Amino acid sequence: MMSNIQTVLVTGGAGYVGSVLVPKLLKKGYRVKVLDLYLYEPNVFAGYRNSNLEEIHGDIRNDNTLSEALLGVDAVIHLACISNDPSFELNPELGKSINYDAMIKVVSHARQAEVKRFIFASTSSVYGLKQEENITEDLPLEPLTDYSKFKVLGEEILMKEGAPYFTAVAIRSATVCGYSPRMRFDLTVNILTNHAWSKGIITVFGGEQKRPNIHIEDITDLYSDLLSHPSEKIHSKVFNAGARNYTVSEIANIVKSEVESSSGNSVKVNHQEAGDDKRSYHISSEKIFKELGFKPKRDIRGAVSDLIEAFKAGKFEDSLNNTKYFNVKTMQEIKLK
Ligand SMILES: NC(=O)c1ccc[n+]([C@@H]2O[C@H](COP(=O)([O-])OP(=O)(O)OC[C@H]3O[C@@H](n4cnc5c(N)ncnc54)[C@H](O)[C@@H]3O)[C@@H](O)[C@H]2O)c1
């Protein structure tokens, strides 16, 4: 059965991933609703006010907000969450209320509203530390942090609710990189590029750890494509999604060479001993290629050069210090309840 999706609700659609995804969906002709607290960039969709976009400033924890937001919706792309370990750890109760309790609500309201398709943004950190060279979807999940643990539980909730008329799919995304109108400078490639461009120095802890990354244009292409894949190809499935797995040192060298060649200034790479976070993993994205034909089209070098273009165009305001670019700093400041 081909899907017949016209209206899509993107929870957390004003976030880093969402603010690249939403314009893409509009361009493809979908009607889009964004439900978001707009914690980081309130005016990110200012240029889309006369389009097929409906913005709902609200909380996914609120039942009334959810049922109103879901009226007339055919598919949900669920991105809203406290989206990294340090922000989650600031206030674990808050994190659980959004990443877990509200996930249950979003799924159950979506079922009630007869939504046809539900796409969940999970993470490749659900695997924890693994000895295996190549991490495939069938390996046991051993999440190391609460953020990852609740992503595992989120997948379980969704898969339990899946039904032939409610297509459920989860994407275990690698760390995303590249330019977004709601920028995050707390993600590996983005951090290194920011430091190289703004300070001329980057610090690498350890360096031999492999970290999977994916270009923001690729992950958003994927979420968008998932709206049109036949249900039987994706229903009740989880897929890893990552591009080539580089070591942190390799990423640093790519950043250094891109920044040096476009700025003419030299960038120093400072090597330090690995800190506590020694995670090294290599995710396999073979399954999604074999089953859905999805292969990332861009490399992290492209993400770095897009960021450099944005720096040159003056798109960032005080990229090293502005709290809005760092989730944990914003969460500390706004004290969300
Ligand atoms: N960025 C990555 O590297 C990455 C990697 C793997 C998975 N993911 C997942 O992708 C999704 C999007 O990530 P992102 O980088 O865009 O994060 P983000 O923090 O930029 O976006 C999350 C959005 O959710 C909103 N939000 C938070 N709590 C809310 C609530 N209670 N009600 C309504 N809105 C709320 C925030 O305002 C924000 O706009 C997340 O689920 C994240 O876990 C991201």
What would your notes on this structure say?
The chain is of the alpha/beta class and 337 residues long. It folds into two domains: 7-174 and 215-241, 3-Layer(aba) Sandwich (Rossmann fold); 188-212 and 244-282 and 298-334, UDP-galactose 4-epimerase, domain 1 (Alpha-Beta Complex). Helices cover 39% and strands 18% of the residues. The protein is built from twelve helices and twelve strands. The protein has helices at residues 18-27, 63-69, 85-90, 92-112, 146-161, 188-199, 216-225, 231-234, 248-263, 286-292, 300-312, 327-334, and strands at 7-11, 31-36, 53-57, 75-78, 117-123, 167-173, 175-177, 201-205, 210-215, 237-241, 245-247, 268-272. The strands form three sheets. A seven-stranded parallel sheet has the order 3-2-1-4-5-6-10, with helices on both faces. A three-stranded mixed sheet has the order 7-9-11. The longest helix has 21 residues, at 92-112. It starts with 6 loop residues before the first strand and ends with a helix. The model has no long low-confidence stretch (mean pLDDT 95). The structure holds nicotinamide-adenine-dinucleotide (NAD). Nicotinamide-adenine-dinucleotide is lined by residues 12, 14-18, 35-40, 59-61, 79-81, 83, 98, 121, 123, 173, 175-176, 182, 184, 187, 327.
Number of strands: 12
Shape: globular
How many domains? The number is 2
Determine the mean pLDDT. 95
What is the percentage of strand-forming residues? Answer: 15-25%
* Proportion of residues in helical segments: 25-40%
* Computed CA radius of gyration, to the nearest angstrom: 19 Å
Small molecules in complex: nicotinamide-adenine-dinucleotide
Q: What is the H/E order? A: EHEEHEHHEHEEHEEHHEEHEHHH
The CATH topology name of the largest domain reads Rossmann fold
Distance between the termini: 43 Å
Order of strands across the main sheet: 3-2-1-4-5-6-10
Our count of helices gives: 12
| CATH architecture classification of the largest domain | 3-Layer(aba) Sandwich
Structural class: alpha/beta
Tell me the major beta sheet: 7 strands, parallel
Question: Briefly, what CATH class of the largest domain?
Answer: Alpha Beta
Low-confidence stretches: none
